[in-house]
Each structure stands twice: as C-alpha cells, then as structure tokens.
Amino acid sequence: MLVAWRFTREAANALATAVPVLRRAKQVHLVCAAEEAGGDPEPGMSAVRNFLLTHGIGRVEEHASLQARHPGQALLSLARDVAADLIVMGCYGHSRARELVLGGVTRTVLESSTLPVWMAH
Hints:
This protein is of the alpha/beta class. It has helices at about 10-25, 35, 40-55, 70-80, 95-100, 105-110; strands spanning about 1-5, 30, 60, 85-90, 115-120. Strands 3-2-1-4-5 form a five-stranded parallel β-sheet, with helices on both faces. Strand 1 (about 1-5), helix 1 (about 10-25) and strand 2 (about 30) form a beta-alpha-beta unit. Helix 4 (about 70-80) crosses helix 6. It is globular. The two termini are about 20 Å apart.
C-alpha cells in the first residue's frame, strides 16, 4: 500500500481512517509531497512513520519526495513501481477554484488511477 502524505487535515483523515487496512498490509510505502519536504523529507516522514509505528504498522519503506512539476503522475508511477494495491491520500487540499484552474493531484489520481484509492476530504 502507498501512503501519499502532506501536512493537511485531509491527508491526516485519510491516514487515520485507513489504519485498519494498513495494519494488514505486507508492506506500506510512504512518500511526502515535494512542497512539504522542502528538500528534506525527513520531518514529514518521521511524523508519519511514528504514527504508523504507534498503530502497529512497522513495515514502512520510505521514498524520495514526489517531483513538484507533475506530482499526480509521479504518485501513480510510484504506485506502479512498488506494485501497490491501494493509494491512501487526502483529497482537495487546495481550494476548489485553485484545483479547477491548476488541476491537481486529486484530479489526476481520480482520472487516471487503475487501482483503488482511499481518500478523505
């Protein structure tokens, strides 16, 4: 399973509600949004890793942050590369107007994903 993390309420809700499913995963892959990482994904990764460990999820593999230019496609590509069965992510972390004008990860994933996506808003 692939957890796509940003420091947003939506991502936190998605992660918290997916815990029962993530506990049963053979492997959990974790990636942070590039703008959250600021070149160093460790702070965001540490917080999520600790959250997962606290909930009995210890099989976590961390990945470099998503490229900022096309993060939706990068996320789907990573999901394919790690053979994920599920993507866990928040949705519409920006205003709806900004999402409509600029697109966004949520739109890309909803339009292009070939695997199930666990989302929360």
